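Hello again,

I reread your note about wanting to compare the complex against the isolated chains. To keep things tidy I'm splitting this into two emails, and this first one only covers the full assembly. Below are the input lines as submitted, including protein chains and any nucleic acid or small-molecule components. They are followed by the predicted structure of everything together. The single-chain runs will come separately.
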Amino acid sequence: MSSPLLAIILLSPLVGALIISALPPQNLLGIRRIAVSSSALCLVCALGVILSYDTVKAGYQQQIYLPWIPSLGIGFHLGVDGISSVLVLLHGLCAFSGVLISYAITQQVKEYFIFYLTLIAGVFGVFLSIDVFFFYFFYEMAVIPMYPLIGIWGSDVKEEGVVRFSKEYATMKLTIYLTLGAVIALIGLLWLYVSSGSHTFDLIQMQQHLDNHPLAVSVQRSIFLLLLIGFGFIAPMWPFHSWSPIGHAAAPSAVSMLHAGVLMKLGSYAIIRLAIGLLPEGAKFWLPWVAGLCVMNILYGGLVAMAQKDLKLVIGYSSSSHMGYVLLGTACLTSLALDGAVLLMFAHGLMTALAFAMIGHIYDQTHTRYLPDLGGLAHQVPFIATCGVIAAMASSGLPGFANFVAETLVFVGAWDSHPVAVACGVVGLVITAVYMLRLVRGTFFGPALRSFASVRDASSPFSRLSYALLIGVLLFIGCWPRPILKIIDVSAQSIVARALRQHQPEPEPETIPVEWVKVPNP
Amino acid sequence: MLTLTHYLIVSAALFAMGIAGILIRRNILMILLAIELMFNAANLAFIAYARAWADLGGQIAVFFVITVAAAEVTVGLAIAILLSRQLNTLNADEVSRLKG
Amino acid sequence: MGELLLFYLIAALMVAAALSVVGSRLPIYSVLSLLVVMGCQAVFFVMLHAYFVAAIQLLLYAGAVLVLFLFVIMLLQLSPEAVAYPRLLSRPAIGITAAFGLFLILRTVFFRSLAQEPPLADLSRPHSTVEAIAHALMTKYLLPFELTSLLILAALIGAVTLAKQQASDSRLKR
Amino acid sequence: MTWKLIGVEFVVSVWTIVTLGADILNLPRRNRLWLLALAGLSLAAIVLALQPPESLGESFQDMFVVDGFGRYFKGLFLVIAAVVIVMTREFEDRLSAPLGAFYMLLFTALLGMLIVASVNDLLLLFVGLELITFSLYIMTAYLKTDPRSVEAGMKYLIIGSIASGFLIYGVALLYGFSGSTHFPSLHKAIVSGVIPLSAQAGFFFVLAGLGFKIAAVPFHLWVPDVYEGAPTPVVAFLSVGSKMAGIIALVRILYGVFLPLHGLWMDTLAILSAATMLYGNLAAIVQTNIKRLLGYSSIGHAGYLLMALSSGSSLGVSAVGYYLLAYLVSNLTVFLVIVAASKTIGGDHLEAYNGLSKRSPALAGALFLGLLSLAGVPPLAGFSGKLLILLAGAQAGQLWLVTIGALNVALSLYYYLMIVKRMYLGTPINPSVIRVHPVTHTTLILLVLGIFVLGIFQNPFLQQIQSAIENQQWTRPQFPNAEPP
Amino acid sequence: MPDIHLSPFISCLSWTLLLAPLIAASAIWLFGIHRRRLAANLALTGMVTSFGCALWVFDQALRQHSHAFAWESSVEWLSVPGFTVSFGVLLDPLSLLMTLIVTGVGSLIFLYSTAYMKADAAFSRYFGVLSLFAFSMLTIVLSPNWIQLFIGWELVGFCSYLLIGHWYAKPSAAEAGKKAFMVNRVADCGFLLGILALWGISGSAASERTLHFHSLQARLPDLIASGAIPSSLLTLVGLLLFCGPIGKSAQFPLHVWLPDAMEGPTPVSALIHAATMVAAGVYLLCRSFWLFAMSPVTLSTIAWVGGLSAILSALLAVVEQDLKRILAYSTLSQLGYMVMAVGLGSPIAGMYHLSTHAFFKALLFLAAGSVIHGTHQQDIRKLGALRRSMPWTSGSFAIGSLALCGIPGLSGFFSKDAILVLAHERNAILYWLAVSTAGLTAFYIGRAWFVAFTGTSHGTHAHESPPIMTGPLSILAVLSIVGGYLGIPHFLGHPNETIHWQVVFTSISAAGIGLALSWLIYGRHWLSAQKLVLALAVPYSFLQRRYGIDEFYNAYVTHIQQRFIAGFCAWFERACIIRIGVNGIAWTTYYASWLIRLWQTGKVQTYALTFLIGVLGLIFHLIRQ
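Full-complex prediction:
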């Protein structure tokens, strides 16, 4: 029970960042090696976590508990259930391949890896925490390193040579946007803490307390709305999505990988874990609306992606479109759809990381991401082109990739409650195919261009490792989804069961504990 | 019958006139002068209450107020001299480099 | 009854002098009017049986503070302020209105709390002798008393440092 | 009367004379004076640490009270003064006027703060506050040849005097209500009887006077001007020390005396808090001078403190204690960087900070962390403080206020990041490397460490604060009219 | 099945049958991408292994009562409570027939490809994808449930995309691949919804929902009978499911991708776009015929779509000049026959035609490939007199053409006749449409023959293809001849039918007229083609524009979809969400800040006034009572 895996996962990048900060900035080799080894350690431990997850016992496992602020009921409580262990693995994969992709960074390498490893640690923290305080703590901690990462090492979004969105704009918008979302969620969390009267931030205890003393329906609905909007910002739920494509587009590719691959999943994860997990009545009331909004996500995001000419913007909008499926799966309150949603988070994370890695390589080599400028690159970069086709196909839900399984589960699970949304989702797959094929066609196919004669492929096995890793896992899960689904399902079942349980909230009005009763104005 | 309230109202008037003086005078010295009025109003209230409670505390408070007022005038006048030296004006409206 | 009459007389004089402090164009008039205010206040203090404070008021305020004012006014050779009648919604107009509002509110507050105010106590025993005050200052109020000495010291040193001419600064700089 | 109880104050008041005399006698060289000042602080700190906990008690006929709460803040004041002295060391060649007097004023201000931390009487409070402000008036105008410094001093003095006028008038009215300026007797009067309107007016006058100290809207307008004009070490002292003194006074008055009237001031404070937060953080956005910007930011922080105060709970007071600690560390970091950098980069204009990360990664990193901590980003100190305050607000049921407070986090992050943006994304006008003195460097490292420690390991500090306020009478809900009928 | 005695090897062999091409494909991708010979050998081995297994199973089946032969083996591929999908092999006469076609024709075409693609740089990639295609196709064919079928369905689409775009440097090829994938995607969108809807109605109180063919077939009729499922819903399900075949089998109006798909290498066109993949739609219709049959509306829709596709494509073939495109339109037209056959109620007739069509159309394509290989030319106007220079090729092409025309004795005759008889019985209009199509078919294939293989040479240097290409041609030619005598309908469980002489006569005469006309116009030049074109200018140009359907789609895609809808969304994103929404809030904040700043006038008395007003505000409420 007290295996140190989770602590290692959380601390390894932080320790890595600390060591790097002590190294001289000229020692590139050492810096990179430490980054790679710390993220590899995370990946190995994440694999260990998911392999050792006991689906019979279910629930939170590998727990670590340290009392932190006992007077407020805050504890440093780590643990994984089926859902988070899958996401931890996703993050481990994306982080490791992101660090490998980061070898392309040549300026201020030391600072880059410090921020990058902090970001990695923050995201791990969110997935591992089962204390609401630390959940929020790591959540915001993950947002802030994005600012320098995009601001310093990013690139402007250009159209026809004209800067459309500068990286300064993108990173400021992203940071403010996400912080805004975080604080809105924070309001909800504080309200929840106060009104539950449980005097604990511990998720498990809070859940037990709320089971025994359910909140009034109206309070649940209000808090749920706050959490939904707050976490919806990062999910990103339409119409709060506009930070994401531009942010992805401006970020350096390794950051985009992590961001689109994992960071965006924090929102839906938080909605599943906190909002649905703690506020069943709110979930019943608001989730149908979410189902409506996610149709907007899927269709609108896809259509906007269709009109983009910057490769990263295409993938950026496609991410916001695909997160619509995740939200759709979340919104149904069926274990099937929830399984699909979680698996889709996993699959989409890998797929989008692959896409951003590929685009990053192209951008590094050609110094452009503008679709009209590109073409025929399959002649020079056959390996990257293969990855591009694979990413496109995975993204449009080709069987054999995990995305297909996940989308099918979402559709199947959502069919009974939201057939129209499912129909729109299926149409969204067509739209995805349109822009992904357009991207592949415009970038890789067609006659070879002379201007790209010097473009190099990712030829060494080391540079291919991250691509191979991502594709391999996508294919493996896509071909053999049973084991991972089993792990997801045990947790999804319990969340859905909890949300659907018929509570009989007592009609007593919730009183807010104030230590002194107010004295009326004399 | 002379009551406490008589004194208090006078002190209130004094206080109000003091603050009015701060607001309408342009010369910084005059503003300092008006501040003295405010302190005096407080003094009057203190003494009146001290009388009412037959307590020494109020009278002692007046000591402190007078001391503080004197110190305030000292510092205020020193800064006023600096000001007239640096900016060549004592017009409060013209001392507005720092703004926004 | 006579006391009341005296009160009204002094109060009227005091308010008039205060108005003059606030309103007269010539700075010197303002200072001199303030002197009148101080005087009237001293009379009130006497009427309220605070004899020692009344003396201090005259000595310290009239004797020291106002002289200092006069001195600085002479030093800086202040010219009379230009007369500008406050226009509606200008800052002075709003200021006067607000100050008057403050007075009205305070007046209402005092009238409303009239019933709860302590009545003027019967002063059978002499309580505000110099000795009693000195005793209080040296016992109960010793700490603020000592602090005021530091306060005065700080103000003095500060004032000297600030007002000193630049030439002397260079001498101090080592 | 126990002289042991005022040991710290005694050392500090002695040192006012020592520094002045040392300067006049030219005992240490001018550039060694800071060591003397630090020595005095260390002495005071030792005395503070040696005060046995059981020696807590009241002195001067209850006028001066030494309790855990006061001791906690006295410690903080000493830390502030120490850092300000380090700043002054960096700044001293820009101070033309005598340094000894400057240190003396620093010590008198510190003395005022120490007094305020232990205050148990309205008159002592008045004198203590005046001691702080007078010293600061003079220190603000200390750059005699800089018109902006003099103007700042003038404005500070006038508004400060108005505030003192209101404060003392309010004290007079409260005195009239209870017949004493002593906190316990005031409290007794409040608990036992009907509170006349005049006393309520007096209370609000005192509130206004203290609102000036902590820079609460609408008593705040002096803040940006003074921050911009005053010498930077003074600004640091002002923004942390003076504000903290005001907050302590508010806690002592609101919680020690007027807690039974919670209903009277809770909403008022909440409204002031909301206005203060919004005003400070909004107005900071368009600023171009870093000190002015920090002035507005400090107004914003005053809003958060008011939110915690308005909660009327012991959690609120703990939050205030923690927040002030976090604010102290972060803000001093920021100001220390400003002092250290401004000489080389030339001025306090934001443009001067372009590309700072390339000229001095250490300074830029410290400023980055300090600003983010001020914004309230985990795992830095400011986050924990803000979270505690928001929690206290939520527990008091003021969700609207919590909402405004939370949204202000995002708002403030914007302008803090604008500075970060200049440091990390801008190109320096002059790419020369900035050298940092080892003393400054060490202090910065300590402060940054503090930022992290306070952001991650909250519990020891929080427990310290909680135990400090444990024995206060306001944490004992024992008021007769607070009992439910 | 208790009464069937199967060899214990069948499990092993049937899985080998399915997986051999996949293993080959993986091996090629992992090890053979730079080794040409290895790649080709792997692919060929995989395919031939499959074929061998199929033959063995076929042998087993023949030993049983063939039409009752059924064997299933599966593993749980995805299993969460409420939704279980297995992956497996379902062998029954229908799938076995299809498997034989896929693997048999596939083996020949693989063999043929080794020569045809010899000079290609991406030889290994070609075989890798081709093997993957074989696996995907077998996944469809052998699928025991809808999800596996859908998986295969998508995968064949993907392989088709890659193979059409094999020469991606050619913009037209890249575009054609994209188009094929997109059109299929649109159709699959309906198909997937159909599957979901089917899943939605498949549950009953007694049992969990399912997508298994047999379980559905066992359960659904009862549910319908009990009234649990409204018939309108059933029709909807049927129509949605039919969307799949419309796309995959390129029926009107989603036929547009198939002619363009001819950009791919010719063996690919033969295998995927003639013999197997496009037939998958028909196979699907046959596989779940009972489901479509439960809704008359669905069935008649299918019939009409098929009939219209048949005639409309035949018309297009008449005006086409590209040899491969002629064959592509011909494929469309023949697929129309098959779909119509199913729609008219006889899946066996459809499957029969599917089988024979696979033989002769593969033959025609491979022959055309041989022509292209020999001449590097595929415009029939630039070809001529190939009969002399390429005798084997010409002979096979002639056999294939005659089979296509339905000349008695050849395979096409029997299968087409079965459909015509069916149409004759069921629907007069469709019957006459089909007959006209038969005439047109004879005409256009005659035209191709006479223009390309007879007449005078246009100076193109032509040479006969190597034996490795002509060998498969010969085998397919034999199959095209004897395909009608193999007893395919019997194998599928259909009793032998008597020949309907009236229909036979009509169809033969239609074919005869068509052939005669083409001979007169193109063989004898008795009628000038140019004059005919001039005389029929309006319909000719209409046909040349392919009824304007491509233009309409292009206009829709570029103008409406891309420029208007997507453009509008992008504009909305930039203008409303980013500029007004997000930046608007930012600007509002900024200007609020700017406004607040005005308060800070720098004049100390303003500050004092504010202070005073603040105090007034604090104490004002005291006198409110």
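For quick reference: Chain B has a mean pLDDT of 89.

B.
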